[in-house]
């Protein structure tokens, strides 16, 4: 198993506009919308990207190849991304860069405590912050030298990816009476809504999270979420 940027005897060298040229990012992210933002940032930086939407898929990827950079979401459908961060820190040889990501700023402490080199907060909007977080964590010998020229063009993920995430949430609602699934659904939709700037959806997700935290019946919050999601799907919300 080798790092993908070492597959050729002369790997491409970073440039001023593509400082991550020759590197590969593994995005462990359950949201297609957030992952599309990562994809755009990686491609604009010269890196290749692969996606795993859960811990199991990430572990499968990592048995087949060794990325340069892992970007790991805290809330995943089959567990905490902090578990994977800790595993990657403990096993050798260590990946050059391990970053945590979340829509919850309080998640940074959890991910850093597990060993993450840095943290990206959703929504992902700044290409400069993305590049800086990675380059700061790279070994000195692998950091691109010279002046970087960073485009300030906006990062606009595909609206269809948002619709895919909404469809996924609708399917999960069928089983949301299960406590663990209700917790996951609340955090998934909260992060998605924050990334997309959908205040109404974020509020509905927070209502479900509060109902769980206060041990109140979740049926009203789930019903409100279902109605809102049906409306979003029917109108194909433009972002």
Automatic annotation (TrEMBL):
SUPFAM superfamilies registered for this protein in UniProt: CheY-like
InterPro entries: Bact_response_regulator, CheY-like_superfamily, Sig_transdc_resp-reg_receiver
Keyword Plastid: no
Keywords for this protein: Phosphoprotein
Protein name (record): Response regulator
Domain Response regulatory: 24-137
Record carries keyword rRNA processing: no
Pfam family of the protein (one): Response_reg
Chain positions with 4-aspartylphosphate modification: 73
């Amino acid at each position: 198993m080798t790092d993908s940027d070492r597959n050729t005897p002369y790997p491409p060298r970073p440039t001023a506009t593509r400082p991550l040229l020759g590197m590969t990012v593994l995005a462990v992210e359950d949201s297609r919308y957030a992952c599309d933002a990562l994809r755009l940032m990686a491609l604009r930086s010269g890196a290749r990207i692969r996606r795993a939407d859960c811990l199991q898929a990430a572990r499968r990827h990592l048995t087949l190849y060794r990325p340069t950079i892992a970007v790991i979401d805290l809330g995943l459908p089959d567990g905490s991304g902090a578990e994977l961060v800790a595993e990657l820190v403990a096993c050798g040889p260590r990946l050059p860069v391990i970053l945590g990501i979340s829509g919850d700023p309080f998640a940074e402490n959890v991910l850093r405590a597990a060993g993450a080199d840095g943290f990206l907060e959703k929504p992902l909007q700044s290409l400069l912050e993305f590049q800086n977080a990675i380059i700061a964590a790279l070994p000195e010998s692998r950091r691109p030298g010279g002046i970087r020229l960073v485009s300030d063009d906006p990062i606009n993920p595909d609206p269809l990816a948002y619709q895919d995430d909404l469809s996924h949430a609708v399917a999960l609602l069928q089983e949301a009476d299960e406590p663990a699934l209700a917790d996951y659904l609340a955090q998934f939709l909260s992060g998605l809504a924050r990334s997309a700037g959908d205040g109404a959806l974020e509020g509905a997700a927070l209502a479900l999270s509060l109902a769980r935290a206060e041990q109140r019946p979740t049926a009203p919050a789930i019903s409100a979420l279902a109605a809102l999601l049906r409306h979003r799907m029917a109108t194909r919300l433009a972002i």
